[in-house]
Design goal:
Elements: E1 2-10, H1 13-32, E2 35-40, H2 45-51, H3 59-63, E3 68-73, H4 81-87, H5 89-95, E4 100-106, E5 124-130, E6 134-143, E7 151-157, H6 160-176, E8 180-185, H7 193-205, E9 212-217, H8 218-227, E10 234-237, H9 239-252, E11 260-264, E12 272-276, H10 293-306, H11 309-324, H12 340-350
Parallel strand pairs: 1-2, 1-3, 3-12, 5-10, 8-9, 8-10
Antiparallel strand pairs: 4-5, 4-11, 6-7, 11-12
Helix pairs in contact: 1-10, 1-11, 1-12, 6-7, 8-9, 10-11
The structure holds nicotinamide-adenine-dinucleotide (NAD), 3-isopropylmalic acid (IPM) and manganese (II) ion (MN).
Length: 351
C-alpha cells in the first residue's frame, strides 16, 4: 500500500522537526508494510518574503488529492502573525473542512510535569477543539481607523453543524474512553454563542446516557487543568478556548515539544492535517534543539487516520520507551542536552 502525504514544513523549527522526523516515519511504515509517497511544499514565510504570498492561490486545492497532510509550523518574527497564519494554516483548516482538532494531553513515564506530585501516567485526557469557526470565524471589521471613536469588531460564529460535529465526536471519544466529558464554555458572560453551545451539548448528550457531562467555565477549567488534571477524560471546547487550554495541557504534560495534534475532516473526503501543537519557536530556531517528539506523535496520529493503527502504536511505543529511559537522549525543554537529530536517531534505533 502506498499513501500520499503532503508535507508542509513551514517556518522556524517546523522545518527542523519535519525534516528530522520524516525518515523515522518512513522506517516505521516500511516495518509495518506500507509506503509513504511525499510531496513537499515550500510554502511559508520565506515564500511570502520572496513572492508576496504564503502559498499559491490554488494552494488549498492542490492539497485535496492527498491522503493526509503533515505540517511543521507557521510564523515569522518579521511578518505579522495574522498575515502568515491567515495566508496558510487557517485557510487549510477551514477550506478542507477540518472541523475537529483533537489534542491528547498525556504525562508520560520519565517526563517531569511542572505540577508538584504528578508522575508519568497521572495525566491522560484529550481535548476536542472546534476548529473552523467560533472565535476564529474571521467576521468583523474596523471603522473610523485612528479616530477617537474607532471601533473594532471581532465576532464569534457558532453554527449548529459545526458545534454538533465537534460535540458528537467528543461524546463518541468519551464513550470509548472513561465515559466522562467536560464541556468548557463561558456562558455566564456570553449569552448567545456559549449558551447555544451548552444546549447542543445537552441535546447530543441525550444520545449518550453512558457519558457523564461536567460543565466548567473556561476560567475555572484553566484552574482545574492545574489543580486536578487527573480528573479530565475528554474535554470539548470552542476554537479559542481549546487553543488556550491545549498550550496549558502541553506544559502540564512536560513541554510544548511533546504535544501532538490532528485537524480532522470528518465530513467529505478532504484530507486531515497533522501538526504539533507548538509554533515556529523563533527563540530556539536554528539551534538544532527543538524537541521532535510532538511531530513524531502527530505522525502517529496521521498513521491512525490512514488506518495504519499498528504503525501509530509502534511510534507511540518507541517514544514511551525512550522517555522512560533516563539514559536516552532528550532535548533541553525536557531536561536534556541532546539535539533534535540525536532524539530521532535513537528512536530509529529502537524501532
Ligand atoms: P511556540 O509554540 O512557537 O513557542 C512557545 C515556547 O515553547 C517557546 O519558548 C519555544 O521555544 C517552546 N517550544 C515550542 N516548541 C518547542 C519544541 N518543539 N521544542 C522545544 N521547545 C519548544 O509559540 P509562540 O512563541 O507563541 O509562537 C511563535 C510563532 O509560531 C508565532 O508566529 C505564532 O503565531 C506561531 N504559531 C504557529 C503555530 C502553528 O503553526 N500551528 C502554533 C502556535 C504558534
Ligand atoms: C495552534 C496555533 C494556531 C491556532 C495559531 C497559530 C493561529 O496556536 O494551532 O494552536 O490558534 O489555532
Ligand atoms: Mn495554539
Amino acid at each position: 500500500m502506498i499513501y500520499t502525504v503532503a508535507l508542509i514544513p513551514g517556518d522556524g523549527i517546523g522545518t527542523e522537526v519535519v525534516a528530522a522526523v520524516k525518515p523515522l516515519l518512513d522506517d516505521t511504515a516500511e516495518r509495518a508494510g506500507f509506503e509513504i509517497d511525499y510531496t513537499e511544499f515550500d510554502w511559508g514565510s520565506n515564500r511570502y518574503l520572496q513572492e508576496g504570498s504564503m502559498m499559491p492561490d490554488d494552494g488549498v486545492d492542490q492539497l485535496r488529492k492527498f491522503d493526509a497532510i503533515l505540517l511543521g509550523a507557521v510564523g515569522h518574527p518579521d511578518i505579522p502573525d495574522h498575515v502568515t497564519l491567515r495566508g496558510l494554516m487557517l485557510p487549510i483548516r477551514k477550506e478542507l473542512n477540518q472541523q475537529i482538532c483533537k489534542r491528547p494531553t498525556v504525562l508520560r513515564e520519565g517526563v517531569q510535569s511542572p505540577l508538584r506530585g504528578y508522575e508519568g501516567g497521572d495525566i491522560d485526557f484529550v481535548v476536542y477543539r472546534e476548529n473552523t469557526e467560533g472565535e476564529y470565524a474571521d467576521v468583523g471589521g474596523r471603522e473610523h481607523r485612528g479616530f477617537e471613536h474607532e471601533v473594532a469588531v471581532q465576532s464569534a460564529v457558532f453554527t449548529r453543524k459545526g458545534t454538533e460535529t465537534v460535540v458528537r465526536e467528543a461524546f463518541e471519544a468519551a464513550a470509548e474512553r472513561d465515559g466522562k466529558l467536560t464541556n468548557v464554555t463561558k456562558s455566564n458572560a456570553q449569552a448567545y454563542g456559549m449558551v447555544f453551545w451548552d444546549e447542543v451539548v445537552e441535546e447530543v448528550g441525550q444520545e449518550y446516557p453512558e457519558v457523564t457531562v461536567e460543565r466548567l467555565l473556561v476560567d475555572a477549567a484553566a484552574m482545574d487543568f492545574v489543580r486536578r488534571p487527573e480528573a479530565f477524560d475528554v474535554v470539548v471546547a470552542s476554537n479559542l478556548f481549546g487553543d488556550i487550554l491545549t498550550d496549558l495541557g502541553a506544559i502540564i504534560s512536560g513541554s510544548m515539544g511533546l504535544a501532538p495534534s490532528a485537524n480532522l475532516c470528518v465530513e467529505g473526503d478532504a484530507p486531515s492535517m497533522f501538526e504539533p501543537v507548538h509554533g515556529s519557536a523563533p527563540d530556539i530556531q536554528g539551534q538544532g534543539i527543538a524537541n521532535p517528539l510532538a511531530t513524531v506523535l502527530s505522525g502517529a496520529m496521521l498513521f491512525d487516520d490512514l488506518g495504519e493503527v499498528a504503525a501509530g502504536d509502534r511510534l507511540r511505543e518507541v517514544v514511551d520507551e525512550q522517555l522512560a529511559d533516563a539514559s536516552a537522549p532528550r532535548t533541553p525543554d525536557i531536561g536534556g542536552d541532546a539535539s533534535t537529530d540525536d532524539v530521532v536517531m535513537d528512536l530509529r534505533a529502537r524501532l
